[in-house]
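dumping these here so i dont lose them again. two proteins, back to back, each one seq then structure tokens. dont judge the mess
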Amino acid sequence: MRRVTLFVNGTSSNGKVVAVYGSMEDLLSVASSKLGIRASSVYNGNGGLIDDITLIRDDDVLYISDGDSFEDPQDDVGGPENCQTHTDWLTLNVGGRCFTTTRSTLVSKEPESMLAHMFREKDVWGNKQDSQGAFLIDRSPDYFEPILNYLRHGQLIINEGINPLGVLEEARFFGIEQLAEQLETLIKASQPPEDHSPLTRKEFIRFLLATTTKSELRCQGLNFTGADLSRLDLRYINFKMANLRGTNLTHANLSGANLERADLSMASLDGANLQGVKMLCTNAEGASLRGCNFEDPAGIKANLEGANLKGVDMEGSQMTGINLRVATLKNAKLKNCNLRGATLAGTDLENCDLSGCDLQEANLRGSNVKGAIFEEMLTPLHMSQSVR
């Protein structure tokens, strides 16, 4: 390992002793960090440009340039006014609060930051000063303090009560990219994971009580898996695309509710009021709907078009005028249901138990009744109903 002393081109003070290893790019990177400049060229004491690291000997004195040609260090006056020193002390007035630090702290750690450009050379940016000579910076002192400490020792430390988001904004403002990346990781890690747990009965009742009866209650896409919502007044609530799998909705009032594309598989809706309900393309496979009322005295018909009702138990339900067009009712139990005037066109009724049903004026055109049971019908099927 070789050891050399580095100076900024044209100066002979405030040198840095460093170890030489690797390539010229490695040496220039170390020089940039130590001297607070963007190092691009290396000269020996005689002004010779060094482009091969093997030419550097132990205890050499080297002069680092940021692109300028070699300047003889003997021309350096050394006075405090002319010296490009990086260890002199200065005071920053940040939002009315003063911070004292060295120039090297501001320029060495992040040489491409705004602070480094502001204070690398004296008076280049024309920084304004207060009556005490402190440089004025119109930013938040609370958020600036962690940034200054980071530039001092390279560690991100945020005191209690300081919002990391504020520090992140300051880091971005001053162009301190490495610190900004650390802050983004910290903020992301501190955020609680997304809660996808299903709503409970207690939470939903609190939700209902906080909403006026005239307000539209939107529960679209919410998760109610396995929740007990039995006997609740759920009229006209929007449950579109909600997850109601395995939910207990027995004797609930769901009249006028929107259950389009909701998942009601394995749910229990026995005795529920489903007058005028919208269940377009709903998945209710394996659900129990025994004794439900779909019949609305006002004439609003329940719409279950395209719903998946495979294996559903709807025994004894009132479904006058219901729309079950192209729905799947394979292996379903519809025993003793009132389906008078129902639309069952294109419906899959394979192996469906329709014994004891009232199908008067029901539309069965194009429906699949393979293996369906039509025993003890209240009214005989008419050929015009066109079953196949």
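---- next one ----
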Amino acid sequence: MAMHGHGEEGIDFCKMLVEGFRPDEVLSSCVHAGSVMTGQEFYNLMKYYKVNPTLKHYTCMVDLLSRAGQLDEAYKVVKKMPLEPDSVIWGALLGGCVIRV
């Protein structure tokens, strides 16, 4: 839904956490809506729901932060994550650099 121009509707999924949705399932909606604070909240909620971040989750956070111009923060995510970065996460970071030029 978020990838088709309905990012804000995806964020309404926040209400659905009560109904069993996990925060990692709506993280990409925050990316496409450009909602940094909401995305960070969902990311932080993953610990509460005992969801271990995967490379996809880290990539979402890097994409979210870099699109918002927070390139230093996005790079910190890459450097601190316990997984080996792949071409997709580097592409997300570089994509934010292109947006900012």
